[in-house]
Amino acid sequence: MNDQTPNDQTSAPRSGGPADPAAIADLVAANRILADQGVLDGYGHVSIRHPGAADRYFLSRSRSPAVITAEDIMEFDLNSNPVDRQGRLMYIERFIHGEIYKARPDVNAVVHSHSPAVIPFGVSTVKLRPICHMSAFLKNDVPNFEIRDCDGMTDLLIRNAKHGAGLARTLGGSNMALMRGHGNVCVGPDIVTTVYRAIYTEVNARLQAQAIALGGPINFMAPEECDLITGRRDVHYQRPWEMWKSRIAIP
Amino acid sequence: MNDQTPNDQTSAPRSGGPADPAAIADLVAANRILADQGVLDGYGHVSIRHPGAADRYFLSRSRSPAVITAEDIMEFDLNSNPVDRQGRLMYIERFIHGEIYKARPDVNAVVHSHSPAVIPFGVSTVKLRPICHMSAFLKNDVPNFEIRDCDGMTDLLIRNAKHGAGLARTLGGSNMALMRGHGNVCVGPDIVTTVYRAIYTEVNARLQAQAIALGGPINFMAPEECDLITGRRDVHYQRPWEMWKSRIAIP
Amino acid sequence: MNDQTPNDQTSAPRSGGPADPAAIADLVAANRILADQGVLDGYGHVSIRHPGAADRYFLSRSRSPAVITAEDIMEFDLNSNPVDRQGRLMYIERFIHGEIYKARPDVNAVVHSHSPAVIPFGVSTVKLRPICHMSAFLKNDVPNFEIRDCDGMTDLLIRNAKHGAGLARTLGGSNMALMRGHGNVCVGPDIVTTVYRAIYTEVNARLQAQAIALGGPINFMAPEECDLITGRRDVHYQRPWEMWKSRIAIP
Amino acid sequence: MNDQTPNDQTSAPRSGGPADPAAIADLVAANRILADQGVLDGYGHVSIRHPGAADRYFLSRSRSPAVITAEDIMEFDLNSNPVDRQGRLMYIERFIHGEIYKARPDVNAVVHSHSPAVIPFGVSTVKLRPICHMSAFLKNDVPNFEIRDCDGMTDLLIRNAKHGAGLARTLGGSNMALMRGHGNVCVGPDIVTTVYRAIYTEVNARLQAQAIALGGPINFMAPEECDLITGRRDVHYQRPWEMWKSRIAIP
Which of B236, C111, C170, D204 has the fewest CB atoms in 10 Å of its CB? Predict the structure, then answer.
């Protein structure tokens, strides 16, 4: 099935059940937060796995994150087929989400962005590494998805399951993967954690670039420190989430 | 005819017909969007070819883009003579638009800006090149207009048809041309595409500078990838356009 | 006592007396100002010593600085035990404040931030030094707290009195200390001075990085000039404070 | 007379006549515009020569530019004595303005700022030079005031006529002078031109730093081009001025 193939009712996947309004509201907020924080531009997208059905996910129709409302949210199966298309234009790259949900049962939210400070690392030999405790989740091995290895010369978009699966393979068990010449994808166990990771990946990229520009060696986080930070049981993303939400208009 | 010569009614060109209000509204929005996005400062300007008359174009009177309204829009022939001047002050550099419309029948919108991240590339030997898929339209050959080759030592403004034609010759068939020590000009088949190009030229310049600062070689877009991206039939600039418009006040 | 141990009424410290509403209002404003100025992100915190009791301090419950109100402010003893916890979540790192108030009788306000331009200096061998008169308070010796020297491999948080005392020892008599891979802490004799220092530490870091990037030697402030500036009797922080307050919403 | 000496009615200079309300309104707007444009922070100040008395000037009492109103504007003689002090706190550095008005009969407006991108050039051996036509007024010789040459080790403030005259001597006939470790001063024949210069000095500094960071030689403006630009008779600062004013609240 190609990108926007009309959805034949007889082949549309069944719904995983009614959407939890609070979960949808958080998904809408996540889109607007990431736009407000400069992580998402006019492009990029955010999804959550259906809280009640592991083989379904929610993703907006094709609209800029800053203007998305609850009415835009669509349900998809993990092959990225829409449950109830209603003629709406879909993100060409929804396969990023479906294929990662297939490969990663631990992941329940996905952010794909063109987050600006991160893009230079995707086209550089310099490795993106955690420079401060807030981005310890980057660990020591940020993979970089090179689509030429997957499908030769393309327009760089994740247009189908093959591309999406290739990205998921590169992502492996990591929290974030670069996408050369394109952007990045962040994943996590819930939407708040994933939004946090998307924001602090951008922050880390910016700060690492500034540290490089100072000249001299950089004292990166030790792997053991990263593990202790990511192993915390008292991490509290609700603190910034409350503030990020306070800055956006809730539609 | 020099820059602001009083317009003798007997020599004023005839109108190409009534302006399509939707086209004028989009032109006003384009001005305000580009100011909001930091591409246009107090200077710079945006035009569209008259939808109903290929030998006419619309351009505001001399006002900062951020404050332009539909009442400011004037109609010009391709020699940049105003159809109905009404004593209004005109952009000295309107010849950028007229001469490009003459040279490029495929172009229906023009943006001239002092877009900040781009200016350094115009005075450097470092070539501006597409670093991510969103700026693939830059291709591999961004020309740089050197006005000294056209008219020796000047105040750098495109003051007449000779300057404008020189700029158009340098632009050639490209989507964007640098203007050394001045700014740049972006062109496209419609206003939405051209606004997109103006914004993502600025984005690319910023990201390429950041990639250079990381040190090490940069993995630029391959020409074939750029061609596949620019050859897309499903490109969708309305997605960011909707969001960019949502941020501005519609006068 | 570990981080969030329930507060047994029989062991809760006594209050130092009613809070001066004007002092609390300034503390709330300081939080919001520093968020507005980009010094505090979703994290970081600000405290003042109790104006009427040198062995007590005021600090918000665990909330992002941008959204803090007077009702969030809690009172603590210098061991960072809450006077009246009311089940509220406390900042894990409140020990930064308590231990500095113990070690520094001259200090009456403390700001802990992840101020972005400063973090790169904390992981670099390049020394942060005053580059302009506004940041002369940095003097010539900005210490850098390395938590590994204090407690080996950790998650970098100041979780207890041992960590806080280690940070206070590193701070010594300085106005600011870097915290490697984490952020920084600024101190001062009152909240307005401390907010000023937090803001101009960030400014200095940004400007010093830009000066380094220009290439060539930097003409830093002479120690004697720094002493003359910090010894001024007519310094006037109310001028920017009034402007900073005018930008925030007073809850 | 030292900085804030009480003003004895018998020695207060006479007024140069009533203030032109339009001129005062433009002075207030200039303060707020420069704060909005990031040229003025909590500090810095803007003055105009009295339109009706060449030996008087107008300058606000000591307040942050962003919050200044017409009621804050005070009148001074060129020795920087206030005409009618009313117990108001004055800028310590008002001598910047008085002494420049003495030395430069052609100057009718002065801006002193800590404009951030410019400060690094004041502490570097790299010369600030015009990189684009908008900053041609910088010409080829931007002087740098070193206060140690004037008065040895100080707190860097222009506290008296000796300092102010030293700064004016360094400024010479230029449009802008750097002040090492402090900021800069811009001058011009009217407030709109001077605000334009203050803004585009900051822009040029930012762009030149970016051009340097690209690596490779920079193609600066030729002196002849700068002369042709500064010699224009059709320069039009009202265009950006209208837009800058549209962004601020008029008190």
Answer: B236
